[in-house]
């Protein structure tokens, strides 16, 4: 169990918070639009948050824990637009969305948030990122099939927190 308080939860985007039809967001085709409640690209591909994501974000709000994003996409403007269209961009206090190492993302998150690496929890679908960021002292979890309440619960338990 981590003896430091949890101050910042960081999420990757593609295949962690959302599914964009089995491609990364920088492989989609803008313009993006909301159609019948779904966010779609110009070819009609749907971009959807995984089913548990909104509940997870709500739980972090009730715990008063800040949230951040760390994504190495080559199209940061597209990612930000999708976050807006999915109505979740405002939930994240910090965002490092640009093509660079996750190490660089986390160094900047540490500076901007004031949270030490040991006070951060990170979820990502790429094992290389989980390993690399974990070496900084961040509590990391590999997301194999999108964010889930079960995985989130394991992350919270690492900091001595529980879900009702």
CATH class wording: Alpha Beta
Oligomer: single chain
Note the beta-strand portion: 15-25%
Instruction: Measure the end-to-end span.
Output: 19 Å
Overall residue-averaged pLDDT value: 93
Class by helix and strand content? alpha/beta
Using only CA atoms, what is the Rg?
15 Å
CATH topology name: Rossmann fold
The biggest beta sheet is recorded as: 5 strands, parallel
Q: Count of helices?
A: 5
User: Order of strands across the biggest sheet?
Assistant: 7-6-1-8-9
Q: For the record, what is the CATH homologous superfamily label?
A: HAD superfamily/HAD-like
Uncertain segments of ≥5 residues (pLDDT<50)? none
CATH architecture: 3-Layer(aba) Sandwich
- How many domains make up the coordinates? 1
- What's the SSE pattern? EEEEEHEHEHEHEH
Helical content band = 25-40%
The backbone outline, from C-alpha atoms, is globular
Write down how many β-strands occur, each being a DSSP E stretch of 2 or more residues.
Answer: 9
